[in-house]
UniProtKB/TrEMBL annotation:
GO terms for molecular function: DNA binding. Residues 11-61 form the Insertion element IS150 protein InsJ-like helix-turn-helix domain. InterPro entries: Homeodomain-like_sf, InsJ-like_HTH. The lineage of its organism: Bacteria, Bacillati, Bacillota, Clostridia, Peptostreptococcales. It holds the Pfam family HTH_28. Keywords: DNA-binding, Homeobox. Transmembrane segments: none annotated. This is Homeodomain-like domain protein. The keyword Secreted does not apply.
Amino acid sequence: MNKSITEGMKRRKQIIEYAIKEKNNAKAARKYHVTRQYVHYWMKRYDGTIESLRKESTKPKSHPKEHTAEEQEKIKHCYRYHRHEGLAQVYRKLQEKGYTRCYDSMTRQIKKLKLKTIQEKKKLEKRRKKRKQVK
């Protein structure tokens, strides 16, 4: 991870230091053309170091309803052996094995796991053959 000091961090420090000096968030907001809420937000986070003004990711680390590794393995296994019968059949086989989620969740996981259908693989092979012929 890159720990360099960004221009945004420098600007936020400048705004915060001005707000502290003047003891007025509104005045700092007007001077630097930002909102009072912006100044207040960064004032709360500021602990005297420039590192406290680094933007953090808002992406969650995990999700409580995320598919477990066991469920993903079940999907991979059933998809591998039953994909030629169609996704509905894969879903039915998964339900027999104890899969309790909806059909759409299964299809999203198949996309996420990058499992290819037979037709997609055939299309890729055709494209590769055409590229080789062109060269």
